[in-house]
Amino acid sequence: MKNVINFLLCGVGGQGTVLASDVLVNVGLAAGLEAKQAEVHGMSQRGGSVISYVRWGREVHAPIIGQGEADILLAFEKLEVLRNIRFLRADGVAVINNQAIVPLTVTTGGQKYPADEEIRAAFAAVTPNVRFVDGERIAEELGNLRVANVVLLGALSALLEREPALEGSALSAETWLKVIEERVPAKYVELNRRAFEEGRRAVE
Amino acid sequence: MALKKMLSGNEAVARGMWEAGVQVASAYPGTPSTEILENFALYPGIYAEWATNEKVAVDVAVGAAYAGKRALAAMKHVGLNVAADSLMYASMTGIEAGLVIVSADDPAMHSSQNEQDNRTYAKFARVPCLEPSDSQEAKDFTIAAFELSERFDTPVLLRLTTRICHSMSAVELGERLELPAQTKPFPRNPAKYVMVPSNAIKRHPVIEERIRLIAEYANESPLNRIEWRERTLGIITSGVSYQYAREVFPNASVLKLGMSWPLPEKLIRTFAAGVERLIILEELDPFIEEGVKLMGIACEGKSIFPLVGEFDPYVVRAAAVRAGLLPASVLEASPAPEVGPLPARPPVLCPGCPHRPTFYVLNKLKVPVNGDIGCYTLGLIPPLSAIHTCGCMGAGIAVAHGAAQAGSPEKHVAVIGDSTFFHTGVPALINVAYNRAPVVTVILDNRITGMTGHQQNPGTGQTLLGKDAPVIELEPLVRACGIQHVRTLSALDVDEIEKTLKEYVKLDEPSVLIVQEPCALLPEARRRWVPLEVLAEKCNGCTLCFRIGCPAILKSEELDEKTQRPKALIDASLCTGCEVCAQICPRDAIPFRPDSLFVEKAR
Questions:
Q1: Chain B residues within an 8 Å CB radius of A62
Q2: Which chain B residues have a beta carbon less than 8 Å from that of A130?
Q3: Which residue(s) pair with B485 in the sheet?
Q4: Are residues B246 and B154 in the same domain?
Q5: B381 at A interface, C-beta within 8 A
Q6: Average pLDDT, integer, range B277-283
């Protein structure tokens, strides 16, 4: 594999990006890699834009990455993916939850929420590897909107299996599920397992 | 093999405290430091507390260290401004057992009002400053800080930054150092511990000699190390910047300063002599750079790298390209397409937030509002737009008082949260009462310390260790401060808040309105969540309910036939049923809940 693989997770406070990045960093560790994760707590959690960084590799130094350095952009919300597109490297992979959370600046401030075409057009200049995942719809069908984050992790896990950079690493769906199960209450384990599997199916 | 665990820097400091045998810890919550005490409190056999403010926290830790127990106080960077007085005397007296003060700085101001670089406090107070570069070092340096503290009879500043506090990396866990459980008799040593001038005069040379000895030790300390690689470029760095140095300049020689104050002069001279070009890579102030330049050693630092904000690998790389340290080709993988202006998504008051009605009313009254630090600072965001100043913890009440004394033509309203009121609001309110300004103070009592993620405080009846505590009641406290006009209302009662504030701004005397409701995210509040809905046939798109700035109220795609304006729509997945919109809707288009808090209005 190449030396380091960089993930950038973005979304809106309350969407479960914190759990998702916690899972992701621990999957890296479980796969026998060095792994680091960084996020910001506090004010931004109150419904604001949030991002977290996860890095896996043989040797990882910085906890965060800069512009153009993300191999994988995992976006929980469609406006936020556009806000963070600058992080994605050329030909990187974008996994985008098909969900819009309309900010107050649009509801009451008269600003305009970007259309899907604008998102596709912006990404066309960076990479052909863009996958929209109906995380919100799938979670709703499973009966709990809060598992949309695990649906996305499922989709990510499947896409990573096709990532040549990770060839030879000890990653399997079971690695992911074990890490997820350690982090959710016992009564939600089965639900999260299904969410994960539905996410994998969504990108088949 | 030792057990390796993913820990954040804050969790690692807590682990280090436990392994170092710390017995007493005190802190005031503040991002990015809060989780240090939250995690330390989970270990067995220790004492940990939320103090009312950072100065109190440092004094508590000093008392424990005088009493012979290893102790620590933790705070965010600006908390050390509050505690600066205590840091200065603690440096003068020294201690009986290890004393460590953690300052969690916030470059880029993710959750702060400034990005001051607190390494300067170490120099100012003549105490050593340790700067870990990852979670493993956060643990190791915490332990090292206690050893250093006892070896040199000095408080030690452990300086973290957001990217250390809130980054996770693997840490090897160790065992707890079991220190004697018994507490020795409290020292009677006034020459050392009573800082009257006659004693202080004798202590000052002692601490100057102490910092000189620590500087000598710094040349040998394992906290500082030279990593020789290619000699064309040498980088002196500390803290998280070390990681950027390794990432961006993998072949450069590095002098890594685990102790960034006092500087190891011999080591720096050796390093400088061994490299062709010497640069200093440090976030924020040119702290190391100035020290190196004072030694008469040529180096570059802030002439290359930004003074403002935090670094990331791209920032460092781009600066290095501009300075000719790296070829422009290292930036080629960064397409960064231009996207048009995007709607901002500032943090907002949550749906159901009990602060919302107060700001809705203050906006209507058009009064100047002097705000404070907490979730409620978000009352500044449109459409509420009802905070006009906010500087630091506890400032709002006294700023309002000063403006009033200056003859400001309008009545000033100060707003302050419950925890902030206990922190530094009380002395300011006593000042208002004593010096008589007709300031209206609103205490937004949401029964918790909200912004930092629900910490207990003197008003909640619980301690950090989960023990019951007496509830410090606000209304008697405010009366005891000398305020005669005091009323306590439900924070969700729009009409009563409006009526009272209209009455209070007409008074020529100080007044206090306490508005109380638990934070909408607290378990007891969540249990009451019931989403409301808009009756589309009654809504005429008047937009009044949009003015409360609730994220749960959206514009419907359905237009009113007459006004051609979009009707309101409530997102049931976000609405908590606080009934603020129901109270202000002029057309009764939002029905109250069956168990309404406002039975009268609901009829």
A1: 240, 243-244, 246-247, 312-313
A2: none
A3: B511
A4: no
A5: yes
A6: 98
Number of folded domains that form chain A = 1
Interchain contact, A42 vs B110, CB within 8 Å: yes
Q: Does residue A16 sit at the B interface (CB-CB below 8 Å)?
A: no
Which residue type occupies B108? Answer: A
ipTM: 0.93
Contacts of B35 in chain A (CB under 8 A): 41
List, for residues B114-144, the tens digit of each pLDDT value: 999 999 999 999 999 999 999 999 999 999 9
Q: Identify which of B583, B584, B540 has the alpha carbon closest to the alpha carbon of residue B558.
A: B540
The residue range of the domain holding B294 is 224-329
Q: What angle (nearest 5°) sits at the alpha carbon of residue A56, between those of residues A8 and B13?
A: 90
End-to-end CA separation in angstroms for chain B = 69
Q: Kindly tell me if the per-residue pLDDT of A45 is higher than 70.
A: no
Closest CA to B551 of B571, B529, B577: B571
Residues with Cβ within 8 Å of residue B405, at least 6 apart in sequence: B435, B437
- Using CB atoms, which residue from B169, B246, B334 is nearest to A68? B334
What is the per-residue pLDDT across A141-154, written as a single tens digit (0 to 9) for each? Answer: 999 989 999 999 99
The span from the CA of B113 to the CA of B78, in Å, is 8
Phi and psi of B194, rounded to 5°?
Answer: -110, 105
CA A42/CA B450 separation, integer angstroms: 10
User: Position B255: which residue type?
Assistant: L
Beta partners for B488?
B514
Residue B104, beta-bridge partner list: B76, B160
Collapsing DSSP states into helix, strand and coil, what is residue B488? strand
Q: Write the CATH number for A148.
A: 3.40.920.10
